[in-house]
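Quick start: read one record
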Amino acid sequence: MRAGLDPSLIFKNLTHRRRHAAVWSWRFWARPQQLPPDGHWSTWLVMGGRGSGKTRAGAEWVRAQVEGSTPHSPGACRRVALIGETADQARDIMVLGESGLIAITPPDRRPVFHVSRRHLLWPNGAEAHLFSASDPESLRGPQFDAAWCDELAKWKRTQEAWDMLQFGLRLGENPRTVVTTTPRANPALIALMSDPTTALTKMPTRDNAANLAPSFLTQIEARYVGRPLGRQELDGDLLEDTEGAFWNRAMIEDAQITAAPLLSRVIVAVDPPVTSRKSSDACGIVVAGITGGEEPTGIVLADWSVQGVSPQAWAARAVAAYHFHKADRLVAEVNQGGDMVEAIIRQIDPKIPFKAVRATRGKAVRAEPVSALYEQHKIKHLATKARPLTHLEDQMCAFTPGVFRGDTKSPDRVDALVWALTDLMLVSRTEPRMRTL
């Protein structure tokens, strides 16, 4: 239900008939994201996390299309395609599921489901036919004025099934489709997102907390928030890999840990920006540590990067990260600022252990040996809800040897990461004391 609405207070002043009607009124109970957007669109793409309420949104949209003002009055649409990943999932989720068409429809308007024919028939004559996306040819021939596609990103033959559906949407004045899916890097889904006739809605799992088991969010977020899998399955984010990048999502997911081991050394690495304007590159500030022993592992602990602030502000943030993580040293690139970088940092903390590093090779050349450490499973990422590594990992997966393809102008966070892991893993030194965080 929408925030701020107390059903007990509202129902108290309703007649019995109005109370019964309110139970089945989706606009009363729905969150704003579960209602179709305004404007002219051909496809409403609902990308949501697990348990976010996207299936209910799809089913209610179909119901709104086929129902009229009375149980036997015609609605806007009369022939609907229901397409699931498989025929069984179309039946069990879209029709018979807890948020499926049978459960969400009031008894006097409820359709009859002919299982053997994979066919729904409403009292007003509207029909829906079930299809499996694994069999695109089954969509060749039938025609529709509306369609609901569930979990499109999981379809094995996505483009073929989607293309066949488009040829069948030829009835009515404005045939439209709702797509409900948890995102995956599926080419057809990516193309659909960029289509100007698509309206996109995102639904994080946590927005539907009122309808989930109390312990579910606590347990699932503790385990997956901050990880690529959590961003996909809980936040509904589409995570894409860049062809030829030094890192990919599978590599980063494999590196995730939820607790830091005993560490022998921790450093804060800083990649200062050239200017301090709001549009300038961020100041990359990454904290990393290393375990002891004969086969040490690098642990990326936190990303404290900040953008659009003065040199004094980013220096203060770097020093704060140093003290928060009880680091051994602060490392900073000085190509742009020279001695000024150290001077600014020492204005904040005159006694901080400082090491200046100077880039003599390009960013890609410096990044390559660090990427190799990930391929050798020698680096781990500490995934925490308090300080997720989301933006850093996005930059990593957009950084190729030839060009950086991220949303920012420069891979500033990655530069700091490379300096940190180079200092920890690729420069020999004697091993200091062991410590825990």
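The domain at 31-233 is CATH 3.40.50.300 (Rossmann fold).
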